[in-house]
Amino acid sequence: MGLDAADIEPVAASPNAIRPANKTDVPALVDIENRAFETDRLSARNFRYLLTRGNTATFVAAEPSGWPFGYAMVLFNRGTPLARLYSIAVEPAMRSQGVGRSLLRAAEAGALARDAAFMRLEVRADHVRTRDFYRAEGYRPFGLQAHYYEDAVDAIRMEKPLGLGPRPEMARIPFYGQSLDFTCGPAALMMAMHALDAEVPLDQTTELRLWREATTIFMTSGHGGCGPNGLALAAHKRGFDAALMLGDDSVMFLDSVRSPHKKEVLRLVHEDFRQQIKESGILVTYGTFTVADLRQQFTAGGVPLILISSYRFDRTKKPHWVVVTGFDGRYVYLHDPDVDEAASRTATDCIQIPVLEQDFERMACYGSQRHRAVVIVKKRGGRCLSI
What we know:
By secondary structure, the protein is of the alpha+beta class. It folds into two domains: 5-161, Aminopeptidase, CATH 3.40.630.30; 184-379, Cysteine proteinases (Cathepsin B, Chain A), CATH 3.90.70.10. The chain has twelve helices and 16 strands. It has helices spanning 26-36, 44-52, 99-113, 128-136, 184-196, 204-214, 228-237, 260-280, 291-299, 311-314, 347-350, 357-363; strands at residues 17-20, 56-62, 68-76, 82-90, 118-124, 140-145, 155-161, 218-219, 222-223, 240-246, 283-286, 303-309, 319-327, 331-335, 353-356, 373-379. It has a seven-stranded mixed sheet with strand order 1-2-3-4-5-7-6. A seven-stranded mixed sheet has the order 11-10-16-12-13-14-15, with helices on both faces. A hairpin with a 5-residue loop joins strand 3 (68-76) and strand 4 (82-90). The longest helix has 21 residues, at 260-280.
């Protein structure tokens, strides 16, 4: 949701107070919402949840009586320094008085207070003046989501560094959100391969084919996940060079199942994959790896897929694959294929997530055995550097 174009006139900010929202503001917030938007409206239930249980900060512009006539809501991305301007709206009668600009700046200050390094937002592609307003406030477009709004209008994604200098553009890696709970590995591999060859499709058929090829068969209590060996073989089969950086040669995910029979199946799959890896000539390096190692691979043209624990993002402690999209000396940037709509996430929250290098070092492992795994994908004939 975005600011209405009628509220972006460059006039002085309203003297009315801006304060944090509370539960008693919900009726007024619903009224503002219904007056400001024709589609994609938040309900009273939405507001109550976001104000009390959501990872949010909400600010209202209020009359001296305390009654709100405008609001801005910011969502925070757990475990990362990302904030997203989820919605901002002003009563029609109070527009063209600088209220929206004041709310936006209050939202940015609130995000900075929560240690956010970047603010992101979506704006309707057909609202040119609103997009220009955000540009004037320091926001720059970094992507487009087709048919994002209820009326099928596209959304332009925009971003602003908060208190930081601008980072280099990192548009090399496309984004694809996994369509199933257990296909993060295939989704990550598809992003890497498409970045190297635009002919590689980004669709569910390819996603499922990759999963069938790379799955470990069993993992935790659900469908089998994809391990590094299977993903590397799938990339090799499709004409890419692949290299593996592994902590050791142990059977990954073995401690995620209890049944002795399932454990034996996992061992058989592991041995089969390892034999295929040997026959294919895929380079395998064992030991520890650092951010500097990954940066070297990325600079040489490789796209790293990293196995992490999802605990940092959603506290679920699941193995999860992400794609490294770049570095800037302070942050490692990631595409996270898990667009969890139930948690009010959109692709805007999952694209180029900045993670401090020291935090990344800690999150790039999984399980009590602290499994470490990286798959480097490169164009065929490119040299996969050994570590």
